[in-house]
Prior knowledge:
This protein is an all-alpha fold. The chain has helices at about 10-35, 35-55, 75-105, 110-115, 120-145, 155-185, 190-200, 215-220, 225-235, 245-275.
Amino acid sequence: MAAKPARRSPFEAAVTAATSVAAIFERDARNALSYSAYFYSQWFAIGVEVTIAFYLSLLILPSTKFGFHGHVGSYFAYLVVSFAFVTFQNNAMLSFAESVREGQTTGTLEAVLATPTALPLIILSTGVWSFGLTTLKVVFYFALAMCFGLDLHHVNPLTAIVFLVLTVAAVSPIGVFAAGATMLFKKTGPIAFSVNSATNLFGGVYIPLAKLPLALQWIGWMLPITHALNGFRGALYGASLRDMQTEIWWLVGLTAVLMPASLYLFGRAVHRAKVDGSLGLY
């Protein structure tokens, strides 16, 4: 009768998990930095987007539509918040799926899945590098925007940090869904583009949600990006966590529902790929 494997202590399990996360972070960082032209062009694109937002805002007068709770806001501040923080959602849609696909093309996916590391930890770890990089991009967005005159004197840092954490948590399940779709359908670029475009429209990225038809407003209110952007706009005008309770609880609720559902479906996609032998196919 075979002996049962020794059970690891919580400390040993935590060390193993941290080691796995660090290894996946290092792999993703090395891979991203190996494409230097693509890596540095992302920062140039931020400069272009901030410049476009500034000159577009010169055509539209400041209004309470772009502010928060009666504050008059500029369209420049509205667009900068949108462009900066919608990158978390776009990043989630692309990075998890790209990590799975790169693992398939380089042959490392099967090796990673063969380790004793839990499947949820493996897939969620693929977002650590990309979300860290996105946070740096957001800082760069606002540093550039300040050069164009963006006023950040009234920012509530605590509200901004809380919504940063909630946004990462709420959009991560979208990335896990995308990774599961990549596992099954291999190429999902057009799907990701369509979903990103639709959520940018309905989520109030370019136009305040109140200006859309009522039916589209309902769609917008279902999306995590809508509440994330509302939270960051509130933080920009000094709103406290109490002021943003509705947005906070909405993001917490969405994460509580979507995270286990996305991890379950990703697990089923991996199981199916193992059964039909398509795990390493791309």
